[in-house]
Amino acid sequence: MQVNRRQFVKLLSAGTAAMAGARQGRAATASELAQDADRPEYHFLAPRYWMNDPNGPIRWKGKYHLFYQWSAQAMSGAPMQWGHAVSEDLVHWRHLPAALEPTPGGADRDGCWTGSAVVQNGVPTVIYTGVIHQPGAANHDDEWRQAQMLAMAEDDALLHWKKLAKPVIAGPPQGMRATGFRDPCPWREEDAWYMGVGSGERDKGGCVLLYRSQDLRTWEYLHPLVHGKRTGSPAPDAVDRGDMWECPDFFELDGKHCLLYSSENKAMWATGVYDRKEHRFTIERRGWVDHGGLAYYAPKSFLAPDGRRILWGWVREMRPAAAYDAAGWAGATSLPRVLTVDAAGQLRANAAVEVRKLRGEREDVAITTNTHMKRRMKVLRQELGVTASKTVTVRLLMRGVPVWEMELNADAGTVRCGETSFAAAGSRLRIYFDGSVIEAFVGGRDAITSRVYGLKPGETELEVTATGAAAVSLWEMKAISRDRLTT
């Protein structure tokens, strides 16, 4: 069974010790984690156990801080907390103690869920969703009481945080048949703070609720920033059927406003016009943040000091729960991506230039219809760049058997990867292989994430074939730690 964000949360609330034990997983040793070829070596990971959404990325006092949803004591059965890591260059990370943990008896006693970080009056401040489990709720949507919480940093290393005891927003607007109320995203606009909260209405569709505040503590509800439509899906879960939008992220970029949200098992983007007087967002164009669908979810961005909009996403497991229970870890974080919006309103994504710091020696190969490139992968850390005149196909093979394939047809403007196909512009591929994670960027615009398990160093081959000419560049990437523990 593959477990998504909401199914995992449901497992956390299992009412019997037997269920909790069944999802406990095993405590893998540091040695076992270091030797696990499925575990990436230059993507950021939690030290062990389950991780999901990236939270509250921020740069403070010359360092990048990344928080994330983490079940720190088990694969499930433990309330979610905010894991914490710090970096000086966006690619090398050092683990720090958890930043936020549930407060016994508090409004977040059953979990500190996803949120954002801002700086208010010179103090890093996080707004997150605190939850209380309500077993036996008449409606599945009401199983978790969700409220927006506030915490302020007490030191410049962001190691210690002071929480407000009470929620700053106790729940969704009165009278609303809300399907959820979580994942706040605040921003500063003129002389006030505004904040979107992921939500939705039963049988109406997902939405982002808009609030306003002067101090981040007292919030006034305005109206939906934007509202989706009912999909008609029969799925019992509101997110799966599109009646709930999770993890909203709203920002201005290259003359447009952009909304990111996750629903129906995919991460979506929408660009359009934001009316600053009426405070409503009108969508003009939309698409997938990542064409990997299930493999990529809940992205979160921040504005770097140099003006770049940088994004991280949760790379989900695509293997059975029993497999990652046995491994003792689940989930990874995507490489940092730089977002831009072109003149047509299309969101574009590329790996941040900082990732190039991990490149080793470069190999260049020219191939044609009558030739191909095949390399045995001594390590599962590779970056591949390809520019094709017509069609190029990249494959991974184990003992001669293809286990993953991507085809770019530059003439037709299409990409195929497994059962997924989509229209893509350009003739360039940039693919990052790292253990079981594959992140690919097409034409400097589209991204697609895949998971492939069971690859073995020395037994895995990388093959590139083409119709027409193709220029290939290949780098062995450097690991960011010696033991696959990131730090």
Description:
This protein is mostly beta strands and 487 residues long. The chain has two domains: 5-351, Tachylectin-2, Chain A (5 Propeller); 361-477, Exo-inulinase, domain 1 (Jelly Rolls). Helices cover 6% and strands 52% of the residues. The strands form seven sheets. It has a six-stranded antiparallel beta sheet with strand order 23-34-25-30-31-32, with no helix packed on it. The longest helix is centred in the N-terminal third of the chain and has 8 residues, at 5-12.
Largest sheet: number of strands, sense, barrel closure: 6 strands, antiparallel
Number of domains: 2
The CATH architecture name of the largest domain reads 5 Propeller
CATH class of the largest domain: Mainly Beta
Tell me the number of strands.
34
Total DSSP helices: 5
State the helicity in percent bands.
under 10%
Outline: globular
Give the low-pLDDT segments.
Answer: 12-22
Strand portion, in percent?
over 45%
The chain-level structural class is: mainly beta
CATH superfamily of the largest domain: Glycosyl hydrolase domain, family 43
End-to-end separation: 30 Å
Overall average pLDDT:
93
Major sheet: arrangement of strands: 23-34-25-30-31-32
Radius of gyration: 22 Å
Fold-level CATH name of the largest domain: Tachylectin-2, Chain A
